[in-house]
Specification:
By secondary structure, this protein is α+β, with helices and mostly antiparallel strands. 43% of the residues lie in helices and 15% in strands. It contains 7 helices and 5 strands; from the N terminus they run αααβαβαβββαα. The protein has a 5-stranded mixed β-sheet. Helix 1 crosses helix 2 and helix 6 packs antiparallel against helix 7. It starts with 11 loop residues before the first helix and ends in a 5-residue tail after the last helix.
Length: 217
């Protein structure tokens, strides 16, 4: 799946303008239809880097019995982020992502040690440690933004961003629970929106998991 290398067909300025248009209320017009085509092309342009980075991540977690997954950001999620004005489309760093789920914090730290920042001669543009500094919701994970730099078949994708998420099994169970409960209740609990009792319960459970794993509460 997503093995084809899709070329970018639009300029960065066209991509930015399409994102601004789709970040608000839209009606079916030729301009809006073109904006959707631009977004889909830009999104699919990142698919090849995602597949390649997932293959590398899978090799890293295999000795630990870990699992990986890859995803393209859904158009609904892209538009929601654009609506919040938290990022321009051409600058969005999580259009594609790979996730690793490992059994323990020791395994997570060992996998993390394989990724070096740009300052250290690596490809990690940004590292966010939501385990040492969890979100108020209780979300815990390591997020890395990688710069894709593969030559050969991947050369047309140089500079694309790929998000890498590293989680323990317990952290993944918690995150999956948040999404499942939010889906059943039709509330965006993941974004901290919805029933306050559920939000409080999930936050407490995250703290209990952190205690089990010897991490900051």
């Amino acid at each position: 799946m997503y093995t084809l290398s899709i070329e970018r067909r639009y300029s960065k300025n066209q991509i930015k303008l399409a994102g601004r248009l789709l970040g608000g209320a839209v009606q079916r017009t030729p301009e809006v239809e073109e904006a959707f085509r631009i977004v889909h092309n830009w999104r699919l342009h990142h698919a090849y880097p995602m597949v390649r980075e997932r293959a590398k991540l899978t090799r890293l977690v295999k000795p630990h019995g870990g699992l990986t997954a890859g995803r393209l950001k859904r158009l609904f999620s892209i538009r929601k982020k654009l609506f919040r004005r938290s990022a321009e489309l051409d600058q969005m760093q999580d259009l594609v992502g790979c996730r690793a789920i490992v059994p323990s914090m020791d395994a997570l730290q060992e996998v993390l040690s394989k990724y070096k920042t740009v300052d250290d001669g690596g490809r990690v543009r940004r590292k966010t440690d939501y385990i040492a500094n969890p979100k108020t919701s209780g979300y815990r994970s390591i997020h890395l933004i990688l710069k894709f730099d593969e030559r050969g078949a991947g050369e047309k994708h140089l500079g694309c961003n790929v998000e890498i998420q590293l989680r323990t099994q317990l952290q993944h169970v918690w995150a999956t629970t948040v999404e499942a409960v939010g889906s059943m209740r039709t509330e965006d609990l993941k974004a901290g929106e919805g029933n306050t009792d559920w939000l409080r319960f999930l936050s407490l459970m995250s703290g209990h998991i952190a205690e089990l794993e010897g991490q900051p509460l």
